Amino acid sequence: MNLLRAIEPEDLDLLYTIENDRELWNIGTTNVPYSRYVLHDYIAQSSGDIYTDRQVRLIIEVEGKAIGIIDLQNFSPQHNRAEVGIVVQKPYRRRGYALRAIQELVSYARHTLHLHQLYAVIEEGNHAALQLFQKAGFMSEAILSQWLYDGDEYLDARLLQIIL
Asked: How many CA atoms lie within 13 A of 48 on its CB side?
């Protein structure tokens, strides 16, 4: 059973909720709210081609319900690598969906995109995410000192990677 699918216009509410969740801003690459208009345009203009967009955003869907998003971002065609980001909505966490989504994404990156490696940057205190990625086969490679800023302090992050 496939867990991942392309993003659709119907996913606007999910995207809006996740992108505007302030709890996620210190672990992501944004710290500003997005309007529905901007997100609607993003969905409409996304080609789904990692070479064109430099990213691929997929919806995590279980039994017909969109429960999260998983991304390949910061794609480097020169080095055949991309960064993984994942958000599963709170009611669906700790049910194995995130692990299955990462495993499916790794297979897609290996067999379809022919990438050489994937990596994730995770805040040191986010033990659940660190365990999730390690369970999916990612290896801890480095500590990035004071890498993330949460608005109050700089936090260390861990770089994890998997060679495909």
From this structure: 7
What crossing angle do the helices spanning 97-111 and 127-135 adopt, rounded to 10°?
A: 50
Q: What is the length of the chain?
A: 164
Question: Which residues neighbour 163 within 8 Å (Cβ) at sequence distance 6 or greater?
Answer: 116, 117
Q: Determine the pLDDT at residue 21.
A: 66
Does residue 32 contact residue 19 with C-beta atoms inside 8 Å?
Answer: no
**Is residue 118 within 8 Å of residue 84, measured between CB atoms?**
yes
Exposure string (b/e) for 117-144, b if CB count within 10 Å is 16 or more?
bbbbbbbeebeebbebbeebebeeeeeb
Q: Taking the chain (164 residues) in consecutive chunks of 10 residues, what is each chunk's mean pLDDT?
A: 86 80 61 68 75 90 94 95 95 94 97 97 94 97 92 92 98
Q: Which helix (H) or strand (E) holds 37?
A: helix 36-45
